[in-house]
Batch of 2 targets.
Target 1
Amino acid sequence: MSDAAETLFERIVAGEIPSDVVFEDEVTFAFRDLNPQAAVHVLVVPKKRYRNVGELAAADPGLLAAVVATAKTVAELEGILESGYRVVFNTDADAGQTVFHVHAHVLGGEQLGFFGSHAP
Ligand code: AMP
């Protein structure tokens, strides 16, 4: 984990790195993923950094609830609340987490594929 990966989303929240902002409130920040994996792909972060969703849940469950509520707000703003959306928290190596500032991926705007790679 490089320093850049540790601080990237804090710098985006601070406006030091430009992003396509979708929504912001006192405790959360939502912006479009640079490398979208669906027609709608927005990241939601708590402004305060925790490494992953488990650490966030243990330290501040109210803030985790705020992140999930912002994911719903993003779905409303993007017009996908009725069609449906997926919320994903990649956690550590096997899930492919690359930025160690917890973030919810909000995905939708089209029929999403199945996920995971384990054959049944
Ligand atoms: P994860 O692999 O779950 O840690 O997700 C990190 C996500 O951050 C990836 O989907 C990247 O495309 C996205 N990302 C990396 N840098 C930026 C950036 N500067 N602006 C927006 N999204 C980014």
Note: Residues 27 and 47 are 5 Å apart (CA to CA).
Target 2
Amino acid sequence: MSKTLLLLHGDGIGPEVITQVERVIDVLRVSYGFKLNVESALFGGASINACGVPISDETIARAKSADAVLMGAVGGPKWANAPRDKRPEMGLLNLRKEMVVFANLRPAICFDALADASSLKRELVAGLDIMFVRELCGGVYFGQPRGIDVLPDGSKRGYDTQVYTTGEIERVAHVAFELARKRKNRVASLEKSNVMESGLLWRQVVTQIHQDYYSDVALEHVLADNAAMQIARAPKQFDVLLTDNLFGDVLSDLAAAITGSIGLLPSAALGEKGKPGLYEPIHGSAPDIAGKGLANPLAAILSFEMALRNSLEREDLADLLYTAVIAALNKGARTKDLGGTLNTSQMGDAVIAEL
Ligand code: IPM
Ligand code: MG
């Protein structure tokens, strides 16, 4: 039975990069007999424009019944001042929450051909292969109460709540430890237990899970600020980095920069085994370059590669696609973010030529 992939092109450069994924899927169909149902739905600003909400209930239902969902990008200046529930980003947060994809895998790999595109010296990043496991359904992104109140003197008070329960920490910790066993068997857990109560609980729960189930895996606790410094200084010391929603958001952008370009990094958001995964390039909608054919489609293509591997049960095609991306880079294919001259669809051509 063929699997179903739901495409959410979204905003800004989203449609441009997802179009390249659709081309890749066509090649896999024609040349490798790949069978896949591909559907699409409106999402983000595009959905707000058409039906007033960043994601409709119907689209959420379709996402939950698909095997995998691939999102392009979301947001843009047009909606920046809209009320929160009318903002494109809320579509993404609702989707993550509704799909219960609590473990966000964000690999930061420095491809050999691109080591000179890094903001760091080649020797610091060559061969880099680290994996963030970012908690994605909790923390300050969803904690209540939150709001902006008006104080008696007319000034305002804005607040958010950082909150984690034992269960939320445990389920994402299991994912990180399991993953580490298939890699270099090391987990660094990042929090601010020196300042935050939720950070202290995070450290306690991760310690307990490690002791009860994964004593064969090396665990270290690193304060998130120190982790930022270590990532910028000597990133290769890490293997799996387990962290909360907000620190994971910030630190994965940092990790992206040192791999050469944020246009390269894919992600997979996973929930319970057997449930659909949500795949997203970690870059944003990049409104400044949208519609100009300048976007690098590799993060989207590699997100689809993660979908093939983690949700679509086609590891063979994932290997093939991954090899094709590396081969294209090795032959010098570069979009502008990597110092090259290829436009978005020419980068797609380069990968397709290798396929
Ligand atoms: C990311 C993005 C999102 C986030 C935005 C678009 C809501 O920055 O996936 O890293 O903050 O999680
Ligand atoms: Mg982010």
Note: Residues 74-75, 89, 92, 249, 282, 284 surround 3-isopropylmalic acid (ligand 1) (CB under 6 Å).
